[in-house]
Amino acid sequence: MAHFRKQSQKSGDLILDAIIRLTYKVGFRAVVFLRRIGFPRKPGTAVVIWHDGQVLAVQHSYIRGLGLPGGAIDACESPQEAAVREMREELGLELDTPTTSFPAAISKTQKFLK
């Protein structure tokens, strides 16, 4: 379907529209850049549970696809305590911390595809 300009639009209106669009694009990129430098990433924890050859994955509301349950580590909280808290908050599961093993630290969370 072809898009046609309305004959009632003047060239001044088109220039103003282009300026508004450009301002929005530049402003959005500036906000994204400032958020990255102004809000450094906090350390986080992720929980991987294997059962009968399957891995527990969750559907987060803020990313596409499946991911591991977990989240940010609060102040004065160990990674193990954060993992237990996140499992309770996200899934309602209570982990038994004395029998839970915490074998590794990773620097990047992997995403699972559906």
Kindly describe this structure.
The chain has 114 residues and is of the alpha+beta class. The protein has helices spanning 11-38, 79-91, and strands at 44-46, 50-51, 54-55, 58-59, 66-67, 70-72. The strands form 3 sheets. Strands 1-6 form a two-stranded antiparallel ribbon. The longest helix has 28 residues, at 11-38.
Please tag this protein with its features.
114 residues; two-stranded antiparallel ribbon; 6 strands; alpha+beta
Order of helices and strands: HEEEEEEH
Radius of gyration over all CA atoms, rounded: 23 Å
Described by the principal axes of the CA atoms, the overall outline is elongated
| Proportion of residues in extended strands | 5-15%
Number of helices: 2
Structural class: alpha+beta
Average pLDDT over all residues: 78
Number of strands: 6
Distance between the termini: 34 Å
Biggest sheet character: 2 strands, antiparallel
Helix % is: 25-40%
Biggest sheet strand order reads 1-6
Q: Which parts are unreliable, with pLDDT below 50 for 5 consecutive residues or more?
A: none
Helices, strands, pairings?
Layout: H1 11-38, E1 44-46, E2 50-51, E3 54-55, E4 58-59, E5 66-67, E6 70-72, H2 79-91
Antiparallel strand pairs: 1-6, 2-3, 4-5
Compose a concise summary of this entry:
The protein is an alpha+beta fold and 114 residues long.
